[in-house]
Amino acid sequence: MRAIGVHEDVIVLESRLWRTTCTLVRGGVGDAAEGFVIDSPVLPDELELLPAVLEQSGFPLSGLLATHADWDHLLGRLAFPRAALGVAETTAARLRAEPGAAQRELREFDERFYVSRPAPLSLGQIEPLAVPGYCGLGDSELELHPTGGHTVDGMAVWAPWLGLLVCGDYLSPFEIPTVSAGVGAYLDTLTRLEPLVAAASRIVPGHGGVINRETAQRVLAEDRAYLEALGRDSGGVALPDGRRDGEQRRLHAENVARLA
Predict the structure, then answer these.
(1) Tens of pLDDT along 241-260?
(2) Which residues share a beta bridge with 135?
(3) b vs e for 149-177, b when ≥16 Cβ sit within 10 Å of the residue's Cβ?
(4) 69-105 tens-digit pLDDT
């Protein structure tokens, strides 16, 4: 696992698997300081290290946030089993509608890759958050913005005083859009993210580490062009530059099948 200190109040952890990101963000000072862990790394040894990373960095733990209900973003509960997990109301609804889905998908992944974990995933206390809305962090507030298209649920987390946007599985420089919840919904999300990207200095996609504003704007434009072409003629779409390997072709084939 790679740790990137992008600000004195922000640490981004990048998993060895899928370059999945986990963002530690702190607000306030002294006894008023609070901290959130947003999303999660994937592998057991990475999750085991999370409490030590917070302690060594002086980050308090006030709770966990997950950008959406895909299993690889929910594993913070394995590192902090007593912490509350805050999610968008749409994510809470998805978790209620799909009981046990995240646990089954995690178990299937672990069995496929011979991964052993010390305990099964228990989501425990879920706190639905109004999105769009706000979430207090020390003496500041995180802004929560709705996302959709990649999945039916989700939120992006914007910390304006830090210039930090944590956007879930959007704007990845390594992965094309996957549209399990529709092209139109995904394009709507890109439109909502666009002004936030323009105001941000650091953007953290769900996969791919920390990127700057210029890179995020380029990826957003490429993703919009890809999705618009996909909606017009799913069979004749060119993949974005730098995202044309075998895995991206497989994901594109899945997109085409969904739209068929």
Answers:
(1) 999 999 999 999 999 998 88
(2) 142
(3) bbbbbbbbbbbeebbbbbbbbbbbbbbbb
(4) 999 999 999 999 999 999 999 999 999 999 999 999 9
What is the signed CA dihedral for 204, 209, 210, 213, rounded to 10 degrees?
-80
pLDDT tens column, 24-75 = 999 988 878 999 999 999 999 999 999 999 999 999 999 999 999 999 999 9
Residue pair 251/176 in contact (Cβ under 8 Å)? The answer is: yes
140 strand-pairing partners = 137
Nearest to 68 by CA among 44, 46, 101, 35: 101
- State residue 226's pLDDT score: 95
Residues forming beta bridges with residue 159, ordered by sequence position: 164
Type of residue at 63: G
Both structure tokens of 177: 């859009």
- Looking up residue 103, the CATH number of its domain turns out to be 3.60.15.10
| Structural contact between residues 15 and 21, judged by C-beta atoms closer than 8 angstroms | yes
Pairing of strands 63-65, 140-146: unpaired
What's the number of domains the chain is made of?
1
> What is the SS3 assignment for 121-185?
CCCCCEEEECCCEEEEECCEEEEEEECCCCCCCCEEEEECCCCEEEEECCCCCCCCCCCCCCHHH
Provide CB contacts within 8 A for 110, sequence distance 6+.
Answer: 116, 117
Q: Domain span at residue 53?
A: 2-259
